[in-house]
Amino acid sequence: MEVTNKPNTSTVEGLRLALEELGLCTKGRKPELKQRYKKALKKQTEQIKEMTDEIKLIKTESFKKQQPFDYYLFFDVEATYTFRSYVQPTVNPKLSEFCTGLTGISQSTIDKKVLNEFQKFLAKYDLFQTASATFVTDGPFDIRDFITKQCKHSKIKTRPDYFNIPWVNIRRTFRDFYNQKENKNISAMLAHLKMQFEGREHSGLDDAINLAAIGKRMHQEGCVFKTNCRFDISHPQRYGRRRR
C-alpha cells in the first residue's frame, strides 16, 4: 500500500500531475494522458504482484529459522506493502529544476507530514512492536546522515527510536557475501547480479524496490541478513558526504 496524496485523474490537470509523479511525459490530450497513465499503473501493479508472489518464500519456516528478523524494510515493508512520501525541504522549500530533473519529484508532491504518516504505516503493520523488523539501506547515509539532518532542520529534538537501532547496510552485506574488494552502489550490485534497474533511478520507491530485488536474490543464494550498521549519537555528523 503506497501512501501518497493521489491527484484526481478524472481531469487533464490531475492526469498530468499523476504522470509527473511517475516521471513520465505530461504532454498530450486527455485520451493520450489517460492511456499513458493506465499503462504505467498496469506495469507498476504487475511489478508489485511479481514481487509479492516471489516474496512468499519469506513466510516459510525455513526462512524464519535462517533470518534473524521477521521483516526487512527496504523503506518498503516486506516488499508486499510500500510506503512513499515526500518531505518538504525547510532550508530550500522551493525545489530547483536540477532536483526535479534528478528525482522526478515535483513541488506539488512534497508532504510536510511525512514522519507522522510513516509512523502510522509502521503501527498499522505492527512493525518494531510484536513483529521484529530492521531497515535495509543502500549504505549508511539515509539513517545515519539524512535523517539526522532532517530532524535538525525540522526541529525534531529526539530521533524516533526505530532510527536508533542497528540496521542492515546492504552494500557491506553484499561485499562480504560475494567476496568483493569494495562496496558497490545499487547499479553496480545489479550489474554484478546481471539484473536491470526497474523504474527511475533516484526515486525513493524505485530505489527501494530494486534494493528489495537485490536482497531477494541474495537470500535465494543463501545470504543471512544481520545488522551491521548503527547510529552513534556521539560520533561527529557526516551528513555532508555524498553517495558514490
UniProtKB/TrEMBL annotation:
What GO terms fall under cellular component here? Answer: cytoplasm
Q: Would the keyword Hydrolase be found if you checked this record's keyword annotation? A: yes
Q: Where in the cell is it found?
A: Cytoplasm
Q: Which GO terms describe its molecular function?
A: 3'-5'-RNA exonuclease activity; nucleic acid binding
Matching entries from Pfam families are given as: RNase_T
Whether Hydrolase counts among this entry's keywords is: yes
Q: Where is the SAP domain?
A: 7-41
Q: What's in the keyword line of the UniProt record?
A: Coiled coil, Cytoplasm, Exonuclease, Hydrolase, Nuclease, RNA-mediated gene silencing
Which residues does UniProt call coiled coil?
34-61
Which GO BP terms apply? regulatory ncRNA-mediated gene silencing
Superkingdom of source: Eukaryota
Q: Which residues cross the membrane?
A: none
* The protein's name in its UniProt record: 3'-5' exoribonuclease 1
The gene coding this protein = ERI1
